Amino acid sequence: MAHKRIGGQTVRFENPPSVLAYAAVAGKKEGEGPLSDQFDLVIEDAYYGEKTWEKAEVRMQQEALTRAAEKMGCVPSNFGYIFAGDLINQCLVSSFALRDAGAPVLGLYGACSTMVEALGLASLSVDGGFAECAAALTSSHFASSERQFRMPLEYGNQRTPTAQWTVTGSGVCVVGENGPGPYITHFTAGKIVDMGVTDAANMGAAMAPSAFETLTAFFMDTQTAPSDYDLIVTGDLGRVGFDLLLELFKQHNVQITNVNDCGLMIFDLQGQDVHAGGSGCGCSALVLNSKLLNEMKAGTLNKILVLGTGALLSPVSTQQGESIPGVSHLICISNTKG
Amino acid sequence: MAHKRIGGQTVRFENPPSVLAYAAVAGKKEGEGPLSDQFDLVIEDAYYGEKTWEKAEVRMQQEALTRAAEKMGCVPSNFGYIFAGDLINQCLVSSFALRDAGAPVLGLYGACSTMVEALGLASLSVDGGFAECAAALTSSHFASSERQFRMPLEYGNQRTPTAQWTVTGSGVCVVGENGPGPYITHFTAGKIVDMGVTDAANMGAAMAPSAFETLTAFFMDTQTAPSDYDLIVTGDLGRVGFDLLLELFKQHNVQITNVNDCGLMIFDLQGQDVHAGGSGCGCSALVLNSKLLNEMKAGTLNKILVLGTGALLSPVSTQQGESIPGVSHLICISNTKG
Q1: Chain B contacts of A218, Cβ < 8 Å?
Q2: Which of B55, B113, B239, B322 is deepest in the core (most CB within 10 A)?
Q3: Phi-psi region of A81 (alpha: psi -120 to 50; beta: other; left: phi over 0)
Q4: Contact partners, residue A141, CB within 8 Å, separation at least 6
Q5: Calpha distance A105→A333 (Å, rounded)
């Protein structure tokens, strides 16, 4: 059977779930960037009134989730599932943010691909008849991530030109059986791709091959081409990874022009001194759940591909001399069900 | 619609996925315990010929996955999805184990509930028509976990009587559309429950309330009672948590006698000096994918409930004075599809 599986990696939803609500709660720096007027809320204080950055991130997830529920006139306990994850060890942020949610929680880890992984699985649960609606939730925080993955901020280390700036913020998207769209029509889960990149300050290079792999699989599975979509958006490849992705398409003689990257969209790279661009689970979560879905709603975009790109980076594996595997998941969002 | 949702948290599969293959690769201590003759393979060397414990755990996952595929006469790249997770930060073990798997990977984090979370989602993907077959994979390793969550082994700290022993091993279960059973008939995803336990050396107490919550939800959703099942097995509550669970049922006047815990089954608590019993993702993964499924196959068990119980413990949250939230997911396995 598996009648919704087309090709090797892609599923086409039979009753494409509709986006019912979405929300984006952004940090200060993100609120000063090009998308400043697109967010539901900008938090000026990195601590959000809490004692630690992790607790601030917890509160951001709660705020985003509550706002999405309010837009639907409900509360988070009405969600059939909440698919959630974050970058902090043991997915601390999601676990604590959802302590009082009152809905079944399925914890994910997909590094920066988590938003799309969550939305893909939420869509799968709705299309499969397992939930009337389901939420996809994630976040990241510059300060909690830098401390965990790289250096304590107090150390003041020099950032390399390839380094990306972890986005502070949380995004949520709720999909359900009945709604006016936009619709999630396809989900392509990615394979893990490891081309041997070992530089933890160059995640874009580690992720680009997996983004190429998943996009190529999607185009093959659906028998479509890049030009069939209004926009193709990658998660957080940043300047370096994005250029590598374009180079990979060029090498394979694939025309692709209508493409952008959340890591390049969320910041003014020159003006905001973020080197290669934004990164972190919050990056694609914020861009998707503000500008992209706003434009889908407005009809200025009608059919887009969103790729969550994850660098499966771990300080432990880096210390053990390992390379950085990448994984990229893809969803197709359309204003029509077809 | 959501026609497969019965009650608040439980789904009943329309075409219950069949277990197609399973495998359990255990560590030395586990191989000396009561289930010694049930495992596919016992690894005598904690390093498994590798340089680090993490790499040993990676190899255990690969070995388990390959063995399950071999039993089906295929390779891991034939699996529609691999749902995988582990305890090590950034799910390092699963990411590296699946670098060359050649199948779409969906990363999970559910602490010690991961085996059941993965199997629930794998079943959902098969029943929903998204994959012909899907694998659920997880692992843990005593040495890699102790170092990360508690103390370096070299420190030789005194273990409290409530402490549990992280199981070394990896288990995998593959489910698919067509097969002779046993079948996964129901999946109940758990809510996060936090009763304020703050002792990282007493995870059983942190998890017991969530196990009670999910079991109660399942019985209510399905209108069944504990006596309708041959056996009810919790993941790794251990001696302390298991006694608390029994106490909770007693307080609520629910008769429950046909119940056991993987953490109590995998070790000889007295003879093997493991204090309150086994824990870790590998605990329920090994017990499910050896003894439990062996007995289902043999017909000595015909209908069981398996609960993955997870303590959403993080060294960071512990340092910040937080309590330990728990989450428990449940699957019902039956030799008939009904």
Answers
A1: none
A2: B113
A3: beta
A4: A27, A46, A53, A54, A56, A57, A60, A93, A166, A168, A280, A282
A5: 24
Partner residues linked to B84 by β-bridges: B107, B137
Nearest to A277 by CA among A229, A316, A233: A233
A108:B105 CB<8 A: no
- pLDDT for A201 equals 82
Task: Please judge whether A130 and B108 are an interchain contact, meaning their C-beta atoms are less than 8 angstroms apart.
Answer: no
- What is the full DSSP assignment across B203-261? HHHHHHHHHHHHHHHHHHHHT--GGGSSEEEESS-HHHHHHHHHHHHHHTT----SEEE
Query: How far B85 CA sits from the closest chain A CA (Å)?
Result: 8
Q: CB-CB: which of B54, B129, B192 is closest to A320?
A: B54
Asked if B221 contacts B10 with a C-beta cutoff of 8 angstroms, the reply is: yes
User: Least CB-CB distance to A92: which of B52, B190, B316?
Assistant: B316
Question: What's the mean pLDDT when you consider all of chain B?
Answer: 96
Q: What global pTM score does this model have?
A: 0.98
Tokens of B196: 């304020």
- The one-letter code for the residue type at A94 is S
Q: How far apart are alpha carbons B313 and B124 in whole angstroms?
A: 27
Segment holding A95, helix H or strand E? helix A92-97
Residue position matching structure tokens 């996060």: B192
Q: Is A111 on the interface with B (CB under 8 A)?
A: yes
Which of A59, A136, A66 lies closest to A101 in space, CA to CA?
A66
pLDDT at B27 over 70: yes
**Contact predicate A212/A242, CB 8 Å:** no
CA distance B222 to B213: 14
A320–chain B Cβ distance below 8 A for any pair: yes
Residue B219's Cβ-side half-sphere holds a number of Cα atoms within 13 Å equal to: 16
The confidence score (pLDDT) of residue B158 equals 85
Contact with chain B for residue A118, Cβ under 8 A: no
The A residues from 160 to 219 touching B (CB cutoff 8 Å) are 177, 188-192, 194
Distances from the Cα of A176 to the Cαs of A129, A286, A294, B126, B302, in angstroms? 10, 20, 18, 20, 36
Contacts of residue A251, defined as CB under 8 A and 6 or more positions apart, other chains included, come to: none
Q: How far apart are CA A98 and CA A61, in angstroms?
A: 9
Contact call for A91 and B124, based on CB within 8 A: no
Cβ neighbours of A47 in B, within 8 Å: none
pLDDT in tens, A235-247: 999 999 999 999 9
Q: Is A157 on the interface with B (CB under 8 A)?
A: no
Which tokens sit at A20?
Answer: 């019912």
